[in-house]
Amino acid sequence: MKKITLTIAAIAAVFTMNAQQFLDANGGYNFTPQSNNGGNVTMAVPNPTANPTPADGATDVYVFGTIGQNQQGQPVSTYAVALSWEAATSGDEPTAYDVVFNGNVLGTLNPNEGETTPPTSVNITGVGLGSENTWQIIAKNADGSATGSEEWSFTVITEEDISVAPEAVTEAIVPEDTATDVAIESVDNNGTPEPAVLMAYSAAQTGAPATSYELFIGTSETDLQSAGEAPGLIRYFFGAQYNTTYYWKLVAKNNAGDAPDSPVWSFTTEPDASVNNVTENTFKHYINNNVLTIEANTAIENIRIFNILGQQVATQDISAQQTEVNVSSFKAGVYLAQVQIAGKTQTFKFIKK
Question: How far apart are alpha carbons 67 and 74 in whole angstroms?
């Protein structure tokens, strides 16, 4: 089985979904205003939200780079915009908000665990530079939805109008800093398969947006060479060697200039399996009838499963060489499983169809 070292802890640290909500601008369904109680609105319905950020009609709005999912559940690099608002100071409190973006209901914001009121901010992914957008936040409770909710608008800054250099890249996601046994994949590079390491990183959520990222990498921390620029937060490092420690950093860029260097991180690639250098604690996994089965040659201690945005969706403590996880309740998409065996952690991804 091919190991894929996608470091869950770092992803969870970057995309802390209890603190932030992400919705995809390309999802949802067409918004149709609803009447309440047969058209007879009661005083129990919440009043409309107010004071949006960005302000209504705002131009040159900043977005930030992030990692989202495409319709196939695969991770993709995209831009996101941060939206926020205030609940009405009068009337009954809302228990949820419907988020309407460009005429589509993207989802409903409910209170986070341990809280009684829903969040008043959300990040919308899939928002392009120079795009014009409209949005509404519909407050609602058990008696119905607020009426008269304003539709606001804003325009994202164009690439040509960016006049401030971006802030530094903040964190290595894949490989995680000091990661070991990082998988080398055979990846097409302009028609030629080459050994490569998957890399992903986190952009600053404040300041001007970056439009490209230059990778500097090498086997010596003091001698990092440019491996070229890429437009997004996911890329491959081609020409990777087995059983080698690499040091790397990134420089975010836009038309106005370069960000300060990121920190220098490191990772070590896996041994070459072709020379029978097989790890002692190996395991395999497969999915059948919505059941994920994991089998190992030594006792499995723990398994944790995360979605691609870092939310933990399942965890099990185990003391056996085989375990099963029912994934029938999971939404379709890519998931990352972190398996602990003999005190060591390995990670693989799987797709829930």
Answer: 10
The CB density around residue 192, as the number of other CB atoms within 10 Å, is: 8
In eight-state DSSP terms, residue 289 is T
- Does the pLDDT of residue 112 top 90, yes or no? no
What CA–CA distances, in Å, run from 279 to 121, 296, 309, 313, 316?
Answer: 46, 12, 29, 28, 23
d(CA 213, CA 148): 44
Beta carbons of 201 and 169 less than 8 angstroms apart: yes
- Could you tell me where the DSSP H helices lie in the chain? 8-14
pLDDT tens-digit readout, 199-241: 989 999 999 999 999 999 999 999 999 999 999 998 999 999 9
Q: How far is CA 223 from CA 196, 215, 218, 227, 315, in A?
A: 20, 13, 6, 13, 41
Alpha helices in 227-315 (DSSP H): none
- Among 20, 54, 64, 60, smallest CA distance to 205 is for 64
pLDDT at 12 over 50: no
Average pLDDT across the chain, whole number: 84
- Coil vs helix vs strand at 50: strand
For the chain, list the domains and their CATH numbers.
10-161 (2.60.40.10), 165-275 (2.60.40.10), 283-352 (2.60.40.10)
User: Are the C-beta atoms of 330 and 352 separated by less than 8 Å?
Assistant: yes
Q: From residue 88, how far is each of 47, 48, 50, 150, 171 by CA, in Å? A: 6, 6, 7, 12, 37
Contact criterion met (CB below 8 Å) for 198 and 236 = yes
The answer, yes or no, to whether residue 126 has pLDDT greater than 50, is yes
Four-residue CA torsion sign, 19, 24, 25, 27? negative
Q: What is the mean pLDDT of residues 169-174?
A: 89
Q: How far apart are CA 170 and CA 3, in angstroms?
A: 26
CA distance 74 to 24: 13
Query: Which has the closest alpha carbon to 299: 315, 314, 280, 313?
Result: 280
